[in-house]
Amino acid sequence: MEDKELYIAALEKKLAELSGIEVDQIKKNQLANASSEARAIREMAEYVEGIQVKQAGQAIAGKVNPQVAAMFAHIKAELGEERGAHALPPLQYDYGALEPHICTTIMQIHHTKHHQGYINNLKAAVEKLVEAEKANDTATINNLLPAIKFNGGGHLNHTIFWTNMAPNAGGEPSGPIAEAIKKDFGSFQSFKEKFSGASVGVKGSGWGWLGYCSKNDKVVVATCQNQDPLQLTHEPSVSENTSENGNKSWFNSRCEAAKKAKDLAWKTARRRNSDKARIAYKTARNEYVRIRREEKGRYEKGLVPLLGLDVWEHAYYLQYKNLRADYVKAFFNVINWANVNDRYEAARKAAGH
Known about the structure:
By secondary structure, the chain is mainly α. It has helices at about 5-15, 25-30, 35-50, 65-80, 105-135, 140-145, 145-165, 175-185, 190-200, 230-235, 255-270, 275-300, 315-320, 325-330, 335-350; strands spanning about 205-215, 220-225, 305-310. Helix 3 (about 35-50) packs parallel to helix 5 (about 105-135), helix 5 runs antiparallel to helix 7 and helix 11 (about 255-270) runs antiparallel to helix 12.
């Protein structure tokens, strides 16, 4: 049997076992390389299965990490899926349509085995999540976050990746996304070099991205480890002003001005003790709350994914061996710039630009 056939046989045997990755490995982002993905999926499945939900009377209430809900919100925005109702999205082209740049075998295994593995594990995590929510077991809910983020990110990232490619595509973009790339990178060639360099340089396994920053109305290149979703990994840059507790955050100059107005109105209301002053204070307080919520929401949105490139080894090894740079170069021949442009225009519209 040829090396290629041996590799496929071994890979499919591992993938038949569905799995994931240990929590400490996820936190440290230390997956050795993408060829271990089947083992990673298996270990994550074992981790989810091993989590024990406490009974309602034993559980200790606490604060749920907001990334749990955010992960499912991003999946719903992309696929329209409710939490737990996840399914493998069909490709809009045949497995062999991206030849010779990405071979048929890679596409078939990547889509039906790897992507499906993330979906299966995500659904298992949701079942445990529902059980934990019924018991008000906040600790278990938060313990499930690594599994939700890893498998949910795998589902979300791959879904975007499939739409970012198309047969008879590639070349240079046109339209608004082309203008944005020229504005923010200087030229398409400059963007190509930066995107390629970042993607090739991902340590171990991960993704290269072109993302949209709603805060600055710019397109930027970013990378993520493993299956971390871009939306939860990279926050848009914000003002260097400090927050109420002295830490740099979403609490920017706009929030600070509204807070000062609220505090002044409060002092005035206490001093004058009149209905007019109290109404003025309530108005200022409500405005402050509105601005805080708006700025915090803008900050927590993170970068919006426009173009993603999977640089786990499973995405290219059968065809390009360990030559990731050659794979990245070939990717530019299948980029569906129409899809990237649609994503860019939608992201700008949602941001109010």
